[in-house]
């Protein structure tokens, strides 16, 4: 009845609609007006240029962290370590941005590269352990998240500053800030990072679909044994997949470090950019274009939700539940897929 | 098909259930606001005019307004202010909750757009954001709690936590029987170091030989870490632990209560920010020796009133200390404190206010102070 391709488009769409409906029911059940609630969310995300700018700002790292998860997933790896790779990328970008003086443009590029390299390194370790010793990447990457968090806290505190909680701002030359964009969006924190994110989405599509390496990665992802048999080096492909995935994640960190915040600070918890990236990749069916669309949705939800308590009076806790329900439906897309198959069978 | 419906129902029920769980707090909130509305009506009857069109709002850090700590305290202050001025929640006063560090600027901006006259940033984490937004909107007044921000339209509200912590140290040193006490910090930072320094100085002043364990959990909201650290400290012989760790401190309380349940008698916790007496209650005992109370609510009301009367302390640092009861030690657990400790606290409090003792605010300062004893 449906081709696989249509499935990949229809299923996430239905999940989102169902999620929004379920959220509406919950709001209704507690005596809040769901129309007002969603209107507040819409206004909070696109209501004026400022919020539009903030939404783009939030979408940018999501695209990259989503790409990171999706890329690894295509090679059959679940990279939960995107969170840690984001953190080290953030730190590396800010380090280059604060410690060195370089001409404009060059400085940004070097800082971005540093972030990508740092993220890649953080991805390389679990990749290597998986390839050589068969250690499951999920466990190693989770551990690496904590190492990244506390290591970066300690580096910020004792190496990059003198016991302070945050670093200096990055130099003008290393900043991704787009003053004219900020001006037209009333000082939102929108920055050139979205160009980087879109470029990377294109890169991922190109590598996976147009190169031999990409073909090998996908082959290893679908069936490592068959790939091995046909002469591909499975271990090497696993390492490469984790390194590239980590690179994307590191860039996501650079978006925050060079764009949104312009500094790195001691943090008592995770940024959640990496974890949300898992949901983004899921919703985007692990494709480049899907990830971009899913990131837009997630960014919208995140920024728009902040407006729901103030404008529509929906309490923060309820907003969290509505968002969680939407994600739940999105993540359980397989139920919808299954329902579809059932339907089409009954139809016959 | 039926199974699909079943699954759908299941998920929805789950959602409603979760929503219901969330709503126990919710209920509390709406009761509160219900109470407010009641008194607001009275208020608007008697002095509705005095509020004029002044409006004030605050942005929480990631703790949220029910964190049992300074966000909650600040919101209580704002509610009290709104009530007194006959303002309506959502119109005259409101809060915006932040889910992550990235939300601070967005929330501050939103409140500026809604044309609030005064906007509070609660917690030192908001410092860079408040500075930035304040420079972009010079017409709006801002106030930052717990840190100093630059800008002519920003008032910085800080507390002399080191003074209160000094008294906590005095109390701990008097209470301990093992001559061994502990300090659990949230994130190792300038602010929390103030607590640590004051506490160590206070304890060493009473007893130069006292052993003080200091450990940081690197988190303000992991109760499990707090419990683990407390368990280690108590096992190694400490019997009084002072925590300046927000939600992490709840773990310290739960460890102390577990030990009381297991038959140990002399385990004590000193709470922080608000009077944490309720946290320490176990059966008819209470492990909360005292709490180092920071009256964020008073400060918030104070600055709001000044702003409303056109005397907003923009560009200034407003510091609350022992002398104006901005910080103090709670006396709820009189039984555990006893007259001797209370009079010792009073004595040192007076000495600090009179300037006889200069309480150190940094680790280096504390080392210097202790070696000079």
Automatic annotation (TrEMBL), chain A:
The chain crosses the membrane at residues 7-32, 59-77, 84-102, 108-129, 138-156, 190-208, 238-258, 278-298, 318-340. Keywords: Cell membrane, Membrane, Transmembrane, Transmembrane helix. GO terms for molecular function: transmembrane transporter activity. GO terms for cellular component: plasma membrane. It is a multi-pass membrane protein. It is found in: Cell membrane. InterPro entries: ABC_transp_permease. This is Nucleoside ABC transporter membrane protein.
UniProtKB/TrEMBL annotation, chain B:
Gene3D superfamilies: 3.40.50.2300. Residues 24-58 are annotated as: Disordered. The keyword Secreted does not apply. One of its GO terms (cellular component) is plasma membrane. Residues 1-19 form the signal peptide. Pfam families: Bmp. Its main location: membrane. Keywords: Cell membrane, Lipoprotein, Membrane, Signal. It is found in: Cell membrane. It is a lipid-anchor. Residues 55-362 form the ABC transporter substrate-binding protein PnrA-like domain. Belongs to the BMP lipoprotein family. This is Nucleoside-binding protein.
């Amino acid at each position: 009845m449906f081709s696989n391709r249509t499935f990949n488009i229809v299923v996430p769409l239905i999940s989102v609609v169902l999620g929004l409906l379920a959220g509406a029911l919950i709001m209704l059940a507690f005596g809040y007006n769901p129309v007002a609630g969603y209107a507040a969310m819409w206004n909070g995300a696109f209501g004026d240029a400022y919020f539009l700018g903030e939404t783009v700002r939030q979408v940018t790292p999501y695209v990259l962290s989503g790409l990171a998860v999706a890329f690894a997933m295509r090679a059959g790896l679940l990279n939960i370590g995107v969170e840690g790779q984001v953190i080290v990328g953030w730190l590396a970008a800010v380090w280059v941005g604060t410690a060195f003086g370089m001409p404009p443009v060059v400085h940004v590029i070097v800082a971005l590269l540093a972030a990508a390299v740092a993220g890649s390194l953080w991805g390389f370790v679990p990749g290597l352990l998986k390839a050589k010793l068969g250690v499951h990447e999920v466990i190693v990457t989770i551990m690496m998240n904590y190492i990244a968090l506390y290591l970066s806290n300690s580096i910020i505190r004792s190496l990059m500053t003198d016991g302070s909680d945050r670093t200096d701002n990055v130099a003008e030359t290393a900043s991704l800030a787009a003053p004219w964009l900020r001006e037209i969006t009333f000082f939102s924190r929108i920055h050139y990072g979205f160009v980087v994110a879109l470029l990377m989405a294109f890169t991922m599509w190109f590598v996976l679909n147009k190169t031999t390496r990409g073909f090998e990665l996908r082959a290893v992802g679908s069936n490592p044994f068959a790939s091995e048999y046909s002469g591909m080096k499975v271990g090497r492909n696993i390492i490469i997949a984790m390194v590239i995935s980590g690179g994307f994640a590191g860039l996501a960190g650079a978006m925050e470090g060079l764009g949104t915040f312009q500094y790195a600070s001691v943090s008592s918890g995770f940024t959640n950019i990496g974890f949300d990236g898992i949901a983004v990749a899921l919703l985007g069916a692990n494709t480049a274009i899907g990830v971009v669309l899913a990131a837009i949705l997630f960014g919208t939800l995140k920024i728009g939700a902040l407006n729901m308590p103030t404008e529509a009076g929906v309490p923060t806790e309820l907003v969290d539940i509505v968002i969680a329900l939407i994600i739940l439906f999105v993540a359980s897309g397989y139920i919808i897929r299954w329902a579809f198959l059932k339907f089409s069978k009954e139809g016959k | 098909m039926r199974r699909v419906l079943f699954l759908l129902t299941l998920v929805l029920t789950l959602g409603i259930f979760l929503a219901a769980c969330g709503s126990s707090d919710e209920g509390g909130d709406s009761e509160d606001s219900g109470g407010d509305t009641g008194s607001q009506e009275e208020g608007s009857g008697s002095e509705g005019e005095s509020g004029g069109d002044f409006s004030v709002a605050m942005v929480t850090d990631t703790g949220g307004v029910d964190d049992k700590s300074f966000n909650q305290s600040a919101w209580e202050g704002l509610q009290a202010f709104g009530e007194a001025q006959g303002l309506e929640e959502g119109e005259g006063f409101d809060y915006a909750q932040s889910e992550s560090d990235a939300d601070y600027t967005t929330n501050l901006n939103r409140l500026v757009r809604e044309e609030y006259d005064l906007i509070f940033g609660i917690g030192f984490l908001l410092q860079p954001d408040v500075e930035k937004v304040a420079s972009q909107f010079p017409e709006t007044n801002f106030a930052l709690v717990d840190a100093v921000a630059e800008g002519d339209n920003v008032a910085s509200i800080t507390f002399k936590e080191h003074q209160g912590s000094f008294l906590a140290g005095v109390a701990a040193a008097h209470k301990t029987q093992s001559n061994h006490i502990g300090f659990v910090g949230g994130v190792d930072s300038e602010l929390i170091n103030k607590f640590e320094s004051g506490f160590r100085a206070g304890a060493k002043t009473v007893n130069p030989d006292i052993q003080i364990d200091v450990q940081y959990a690197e988190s303000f909201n992991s109760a499990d870490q707090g419990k683990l650290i407390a368990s280690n400290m108590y096992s190694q012989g400490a019997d009084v632990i002072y925590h300046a760790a927000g939600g992490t401190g709840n773990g310290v309380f739960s460890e102390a209560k577990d030990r009381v349940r297991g038959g140990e008698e002399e385990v004590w916790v000193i709470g922080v920010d608000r009077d944490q007496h309720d946290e320490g209650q176990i059966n008819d005992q209470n492990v909360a020796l005292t709490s180092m109370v920071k009256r964020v609510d008073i400060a918030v009301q104070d600055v709001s009133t000044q702003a409303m009367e056109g005397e907003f302390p923009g560009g200034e640092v407003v510091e609350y200390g022992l002398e104006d009861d901005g910080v103090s030690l709670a006396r709820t657990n009189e039984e555990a404190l006893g007259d001797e400790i209370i009079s010792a606290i009073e004595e040192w409090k007076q000495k600090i206010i009179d300037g006889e003792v200069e309480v150190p605010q940094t680790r280096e300062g504390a080392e210097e102070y202790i070696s000079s004893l």
